[in-house]
């Protein structure tokens, strides 16, 4: 059984963060583990508040796992401050962690800041250099690369810029650009384009968390980077196609669509 870890924030409504990650791990039939960095009070309408765990306790959770269990891949999500980013980078370096997937979460869909502005430079300097792949959306890529992204050429330039910060691979997600959602992967040599079909749905809570978790699962399952992204893109497409409404706002996607015999299964 492959073992995959998420280091991220908790979403009380279960659509994003740690909860989305663990559901994605289960849907890939890998063993899921978690290090919680922050607890958010959140629902489909937005984030009410976030409470960070002390950095010592985040470090302790990482230690508990790596001193006992051989981790096949790790996905990193919400890290809200410079000191938390430094703590996680130091611990993962110490334990020689492999297959590190970084989703540089900055702002929730509803606009709540999940990362302090001044911590973006720490993310770039301390965490990107140890990552196997980083998966920013358009806004996150723009902020890190210092490039206004309006079209696919801008996406390619941003990929190159972020690659220069030291990540092995950069995947910029095109969900927020007009037209069909195209994600662009850059490995320092070649660009690979992953085209999806845009689904018109208001229920897209946790798409970014889910995609990065699926990539971590597929890397743990020994797929190459290109195949891991391809399979994860197929997974997110199916999960969004089968998204559903709960609450009054942005509802969740269906992590378990492949397991349902028909659409009305509960
Ligand atoms: N409406 C859509 N239809 C199909 N695919 C989509 C749609 N929206 C996003 N995607 C895909 O979902 C994945 C996540 O992309 P997105 O740009 O939404 O990430 P994100 O902004 O980080 O998500 P989040 O808001 O959860 O943090 C990408 O592979 C993207 O192409
Ligand atoms: C805890 C958490 N992590 C990530 C996201 C993605 O936006 C979110 N909404 N909440």
TrEMBL record:
Record protein name field: Hydroxymethylpyrimidine/phosphomethylpyrimidine kinase
GO biological process: thiamine biosynthetic process
UniProt xrefs under NCBIfam families: HMP-P_kinase
Keywords: ATP-binding, Kinase, Nucleotide-binding, Thiamine biosynthesis, Transferase
Keyword RNA-binding tagged: no
Alphabetical list of Pfam families matching this protein: Phos_pyr_kin (PF08543)
GO cellular component term, pick one: cytosol
The enzyme's E.C. designation: 2.7.1.49, 2.7.4.7
Residue ranges annotated for the Pyridoxamine kinase/Phosphomethylpyrimidine kinase domain, each copy included: 11-254
Organism encoding this protein: Caloramator australicus RC3
Broad class of enzyme this protein falls into: transferase
Record field: catalytic activity: 4-amino-5-hydroxymethyl-2-methylpyrimidine + ATP = 4-amino-2-methyl-5-(phosphooxymethyl)pyrimidine + ADP + H(+); 4-amino-2-methyl-5-(phosphooxymethyl)pyrimidine + ATP = 4-amino-2-methyl-5-(diphosphooxymethyl)pyrimidine + ADP
InterPro entries in the cross-refs: HMP/HMP-P_kinase_dom, PM/HMP-P_kinase-1, Ribokinase-like
Superkingdom, taxonomy of origin: Bacteria
Family that this chain belongs to: Belongs to the ThiD family.
SUPFAM superfamilies, sorted: Ribokinase-like (SSF53613)
Listed pathway(s): Cofactor biosynthesis; thiamine diphosphate biosynthesis; 4-amino-2-methyl-5-diphosphomethylpyrimidine from 5-amino-1-(5-phospho-D-ribosyl)imidazole: step 3/3; Cofactor biosynthesis; thiamine diphosphate biosynthesis; 4-amino-2-methyl-5-diphosphomethylpyrimidine from 5-amino-1-(5-phospho-D-ribosyl)imidazole: step 2/3
GO molecular-function terms, A-Z: ATP binding; hydroxymethylpyrimidine kinase activity; phosphomethylpyrimidine kinase activity
């Amino acid at each position: 059984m492959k073992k995959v870890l998420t280091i991220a924030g908790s979403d009380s409504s279960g659509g994003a963060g740690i909860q989305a990650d663990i559901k994605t791990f289960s849907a890939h039939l890998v063993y899921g583990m978690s290090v919680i960095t922050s607890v958010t009070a959140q629902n489909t309408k937005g984030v009410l508040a976030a409470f960070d765990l002390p950095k010592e306790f985040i470090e302790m959770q990482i230690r508990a796992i790596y001193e006992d269990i051989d981790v096949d891949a790790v996905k990193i999500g919400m890290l809200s401050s410079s000191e938390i980013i430094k703590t996680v980078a130091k611990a993962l370096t110490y334990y020689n962690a492999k297959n590190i997937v970084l989703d540089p979460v900055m702002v929730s869909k509803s606009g709540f800041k999940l990362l302090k502005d001044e911590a973006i430079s720490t993310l770039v300097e301390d965490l990107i250099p140890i990552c196997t792949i980083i998966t920013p959306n358009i806004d996150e890529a723009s902020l890190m690369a210092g490039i206004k992204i309006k079209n696919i050429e801008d996406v390619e330039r941003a990929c190159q810029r972020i690659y220069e910060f030291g990540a092995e691979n950069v995947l910029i997600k095109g969900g927020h650009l007009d037209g069909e959602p195209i994600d662009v992967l850059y490995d320092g040599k070649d660009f690979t384009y992953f085209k999806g079909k845009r689904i018109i749905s208001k229920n897209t809570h946790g798409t970014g968390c889910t995609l990065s978790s699926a990539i971590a699962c597929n890397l743990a399952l020994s797929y190459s980077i290109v195949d891991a992204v391809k399979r994860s893109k197929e997974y997110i497409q199916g999960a969004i196609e089968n998204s559903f409404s709960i609450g009054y706002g942005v509802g969740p996607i269906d992590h378990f669509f492949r397991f349902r015999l028909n659409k009305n299964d509960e």
